Every structure is written in C-alpha cells, then in structure tokens.
Amino acid sequence: MRSTNSVTKYPWWFQLAEKPLPEPLPQREWAVLPLRFQPGLAELEALLHDGVAVGPVLCCPRHRWLYVPVAPECLHSPVGERLGVRGRDLSCPFDTRHRAGCDDRLWLLPADPRYLTDFPALADRMYRVRRSAPPRLAAAACA
Known about the structure:
By secondary structure, this protein is α+β, with helices and mostly antiparallel strands. It has three helices and five strands; from the N terminus they run E-E-H-E-E-H-E-H. The chain has one domain. Helix content is 22%, strand content 16%. Helix 1 crosses helix 3. It starts with 12 loop residues before the first strand and ends in a 13-residue tail after the last helix.
C-alpha cells in the first residue's frame, strides 16, 4: 500500500469540472497567471494565511500546473509580462499530445471566492520565495 501526503495545508473547496466558471469570473474581466503546482500552491496558501485576497484557481493535475485569474491590468504590466500573465486563456499548452484539452482539471476555491487573486501580493511573494529579485519589486505591478 502506498502512503499519500497532502500537498495542501488550506481547506480548499473543489469544483470538479471546468465549466461553469466559478464566481466571480463570469461577471469580471481577468487575465491568467500560469504557475507550477509547487511552489505555486504554497505561495497562494501563504497569501491566504496572511489574509490576502485569493480567488479561484484552475488546477491541471496531469501537467501539475495552476492557472490563477488576476486583474486584467496585469497582462500588460512589466512584472506581469515577466511572469507570463496571459489573456483569458485557460488552455494547457505544455503537452502537444493533448491539444483537445486536459482530463480532470478542477477548480480550487478558497472559503470566500468572490475576489480575483491579488497579483501584486502574489508576485511579491514569488520574488521573495524564489529569490529572483529584491523584495517589494512587484508592489506596483498592476497600478
């Protein structure tokens, strides 16, 4: 028997289908920040622990990627461009053998999914954790 360990410390809600889009996405404009499952999930959970807004997150278990909807202004910001923010494209382009879509993608929903994820806070957390830039570089990322 194989033992399993949880990769999450936060009590996420799950929507086990991609459609319909969870709230607040149908009523708002948004862009997408693709993140590797780890450390992306840990960074999102750290924001939740700190009381920072985190919205719905699309998870692709096959490719171990997360797709985080963020404010659309982040799409054309220098930090957003550097981190790979793209339009409302939720496709998983990392495996050309599965162009028709990935199986079993699901939404991770925080306890209060009314908000989009706070991109400046997430970018700042990413830079601090990954040590790829000085702290606070992303503070005005989408201003």
